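>> received
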Amino acid sequence: MKALAAAVRSAVFYVWMGVTVVPWALALMLVSLFAPRTTVWWCAVSWFRVVLFGCRWILGIRVRVQGLENLPCNGGAVLLSKHQSTLETLLLPTLVAHPLAFVFKRELLRIPFFGWSMARLQMIHIDRESRAASMKSIISQGSALLAQGTWVIMFPEGTRVAPGQRGTYQTAGTRLAVEAGVPVVPIAVTAGKCWPRPVLEKCSGVVDVSFGPPMASTDADPRALMRDVEAWIETEMQRLEPEAYASHQDRAE
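>> returned
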């Protein structure tokens, strides 16, 4: 019965997303014709909040946040987050009181309505087939956005990883931070236990989000800085979700 109930809730939630994304995407594309990027961004965030409303009341997913006081009050920042599911991309913008720009693969722009509206938000689109071109785009576009007052958010592992696992942390985010002279803020998120990949069915529960202390990039080595980011995120993930890491270690043994 529990499995059936979860399947029904998940189906209702997908209907909720589908019904709400079309009018919001059309409104966003219309607003983008005459409004500044900041206004368009908050229009998008308003839909993220609608989706999260569905997460709470349809799926039973609650969010617990700590460390918001670690976000810089002034200047720019590069946010580097753990990536377990799609939920992070919807949740984090609703927690940060600052316009953000995601780094994501160009293919997502082809998704009807969602991708079309994303194209109007001046994000950083990369071609994952060319690592050199992607790095160049991240540095050039990211530096320009940071200079305009937009923070950049990235998933340094590059792809979603299951709870209890660790991907390969890439240095693009710390290279951008060093180039732009802004601090890095690490973020730990336990979204995978409620919004698993690639399973369509969602689970009720609590998602923890923890913002770490900003790490200065001035005169820093990007690789060393990323090692510090990785160490903080993975240590915090083990604190927030010890059962997932213990389970994964047991399977490995």
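>> The longest helix spans residues 2-31.
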